Amino acid sequence: MSDGPPCPPRPECGASGTLSVAHLEALARLLCARALREVLAAGPELFCPLERHAGPHLDVVLDPGSGDALWARWSDGQGPDAEPDAVLPLPDCPAITGPEACPHPLGHPGGHGPHPSTPAP
Q1: Strands 57-62 and 45-47: what pairing?
Q2: Which residues have a Cβ under 8 Å from the Cβ of 95 and sit 6 or more positions away?
Q3: What are the residues whose beta carbons fall under 8 Å from the beta carbon of 102, sequence distance 6 or more?
Q4: According to the model, what pLDDT value does residue 111 have?
Q5: Residues 77-117 pLDDT 10s
């Protein structure tokens, strides 16, 4: 018996932004060297991975895998160089899609996404 065709992928929001020098300096004061290297390796660019929605937008800055990740949050209407109004720890969404947990924060808008390591159907 077939489960039917796979669900079509949900359209990602795609709103973009950029961590400012001030954000990076603050993170440098707060994070250990290894964590800071991870943030710097990812670059200052932000991209909202949530399902299409009106802001605020979110992008993970650092996920230590402990149940909370650091997320940058910014608003609509600031253009591609929008700077976050906050970088804050948010608890992980407890929803499960397939074998992996939803990679978004608790209470995110839209549907639950597959974990980045889960191959798309």
Answers
A1: unpaired
A2: 101, 102, 112
A3: 92, 93, 94, 95, 96, 108, 112, 113, 114, 115
A4: 78
A5: 766 678 899 999 999 888 865 556 788 888 888 777 765 44
